[in-house]
Structures are given as C-alpha cells and as structure tokens.
C-alpha cells in the first residue's frame, strides 16, 4: 500500500476477487482469515458491498458476488445474452418449448435471456426480466440444488405448476463459470416433462457455460 491508495477500497476489491474465485461463496470467518483482518472489518466491508448489490449473502451466511457486479458494465447483460443465445435457440427449437437463461439476483431468479420456438402452435410466453423466488420454479430450484451438489456433477430439476398453472419446467445449473450462479431451462405447457428433456437441458447448460468462460 502507498500513501496514495485507500486501504478500505483495496480490501473491498480483494473481497470481490476472493468471492469471484469461488463457486460456493465464503463465510465471514473464511474471508477474515484470507484477508488477514478481524471479522468486524469483514462485516463492514460486506455490508457496504451489499448496499451496492456487489455482494449478497445466502440464508447460510455465505457471501457471494452479487448481480450488481454485472450492472457495473452496461453491456454485460447484452454480452451474456449474446453468448447464450445460440445454445438457447437450439434448445428451444429441438424441444419445442421456451428456453431461458436465468441468473441469481439477491433471493430471486432473474431471466436474462429467453428464446421461444418458431414452429410450435403454442408455447409458454416468458420474457427476459421475469423474476421469481429461487425456491419456486425449475430455474431457481436447479440453482439451489447446485449449491449442495458435488462440484462438477451435472443434474437437472423438474417442476410442475409452481409458476404457472399447467406449465412444467426443466432446468440445469451453470457449472464452472466463476462468479456466476445461474441455470438454463425450458418451460412448456404439459402435465409432465418428456424423458429426453432433462439430459438435453443439461447439455445446453454446458454449452452456455462454455460460451461464458
């Protein structure tokens, strides 16, 4: 540190870098140990970063990078959407259902990219910007499941009627994208999700993750 630099700002940036390098978040104690400062300092840093949505803490108290980091760059969301669109378009056309990329925003799941199939007579209307609680709907539940999933182990989540009556959803988490929590999924008007959809969604999630790395 030199006389011209800010120790507090430096520590805050170090917190963001530490959180960006983990997929499962860090506790106050873990951050304290890695920064070499006491827990009170860490609490203050996290509280300040949370006010700007740069950091969020889950129900277990683990701190993670917040979606506000993405908002710092006005072109980030368009870039994320652009990277995800080829895989989403392929998924929507293959399954004949609305495909979406969803990211965590606080305690909500936020759809940031949506592609509807072109050849179906009807499909679920789903728009970018739609949000819902993480514990409802396949997109959010897939993200929550990934938090307790062994690292690198693919899987998918199925739901029915949780967000819209008569609609079923399938989603798989994005894995291996540092600092980003999200999922890729489809929503369809059906009583049950066809067997082949789950593995197909997992494949699409892998494609999107590769495009975002």
Write the layout of secondary structure elements.
Layout: H1 7-20, H2 28-35, H3 39-51, E1 55-57, E2 63-65, H4 68-72, H5 76-95, E3 98-105, E4 108-115, E5 131-133, H6 138-147, E6 157-160, E7 167-173, E8 182-189, H7 197-212
Antiparallel strand pairs: 1-2, 3-4, 3-8, 4-5, 6-7, 7-8
Helix pairs in contact: 2-3, 5-7
Question: What is the CA–CA distance across the termini?
Answer: 32 Å
| Residue fraction in strands | 15-25%
| Strand order across the largest sheet | 5-4-3-8-7-6
Low-confidence stretches: none
Q: How would you name the oligomeric state of the polypeptide chains in this document?
A: single chain
Order of helices and strands: HHHEEHHEEEHEEEH
Number of helices: 7
Question: How would you sum up the major sheet?
Answer: 6 strands, antiparallel
| Strand-pairing-aware structural class | alpha+beta
Radius of gyration: 18 Å
Q: What value does the average pLDDT take?
A: 89
Instruction: Note the overall shape.
Output: elongated
Number of strands: 8
Give the helix level as a range of percent: 40-55%
Pfam families: HTH_IclR (PF09339), IclR_C (PF01614)
Keywords: DNA-binding, Transcription, Transcription regulation
Domain HTH iclR-type: 6-67
Domain IclR-ED: 68-213
